[in-house]
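Let's practice the habit of predicting before peeking. Look at the sequence and jot down your guess about where helices and strands might fall. Then scroll down.
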Amino acid sequence: MNLGVLISDAQAQSAGGPMSGSGFGQIVILVVFVAVFYLLMIRPQQKRMKDQQAMLSRLAAGDEVVTNGGILGRIVEVGDLFLTLEIAEGVRIKVQKAQVSQLMPKGTFKSA
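Done guessing? Here is the structure:
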């Protein structure tokens, strides 16, 4: 048996790699990753949802809005779940309140 081969194998096995240890570094990296993910993805989305809900709760007759489908109209009647939009002279449609995507400045409906 070649003693030189056994010694070099034993030295190679005893050398610790950069990841040998308690794993504390891996946990820190995971926590930092989750924190960055929260700050860049989850928190802004929650803020947008909160702003959208606040806008929907403030809707009133006479407001001009755009729906998610791109329909521009003036609110004629507001209910709990639905609202009635006037999209042209004498043309009214009923849409879900949640489908309103944007509140437009006054006068936008006339110029469109």
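How did you do? The chain has three helices and five strands.
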